Amino acid sequence: MQTAFLRGRDHHQIGRLELEGLGSAAVGLSRGGARKTYFYTDPNEDCVAFALGDGGQLIIAADGHHGELGSEAAVEVILDEFADRWTSGEAPVAGESAWREQGVEALMSSNRAILEIAARNQLPPAPTTFVLALIRPADDLLLHLSVGDSHLFAVDSEKALDLGGRDPSLKFTPFLGYEEARADTIEQYSKIGVRSLAEIRAVVLATDGLSEPGIGLQDPARAVLGAVSRAELDSPADRRAVDTCRSVVEVSMRAHRAQKAGDNMGCSVVWLDR
Question: What domains lie within the chain, and their CATH numbers?
Fold first, then answer.
């Protein structure tokens, strides 16, 4: 298994973009295109990661609040405890219900990791929004997990469908890391889905630096579709993921600069071979 993990603690320069790509996957992270105009604990509280194995690709993005430790812990436990078997040549489970159970287990583990690292450091928990996508082409499987208002786009030739994002039926934004969650709580306040990969060209995760009102873009799905379409036309196959990732973060940072209000911006991408 091959991995990349970009942590906000390592990337504090406004306007700078850090990219890492390998074949079909890429991650990008920035402190943002302008200074934050709201209270924050650490300069960059976002994290992004990918894991590539013989059987699949896993991408993650986490947007921390009130500190960088929560998003780091949430991502790290997935890489340590789930990524290897999820991306292995032989799938660990089969069937939609079994994969949904895997998703619930992963979110509970991330939630627990946030609470545990806060306790070890004698700090209040630093909650995080969280998006994850697992792509297993041979199994025609996309497992997608979302908690909070970060984005998870499944992109085909005509649209970028957000499988994450803010749930309009809720009057608050859910986070991982507020309390010891039960499975029923996780299922109530998260989006967990399994679907076919048919027609999907790319999967793009983005934190809300892409879309926060007064900071990001009014139509983030359009920007993501444009980034994927340009990469398909202009980039060689082995650069499409990293070029898509660059485009999504850069268009977000331009919006930050235009509105003189920044936010951390993380993006993770997988391109599918067609």
Answer: 2-271 (3.60.40.10)
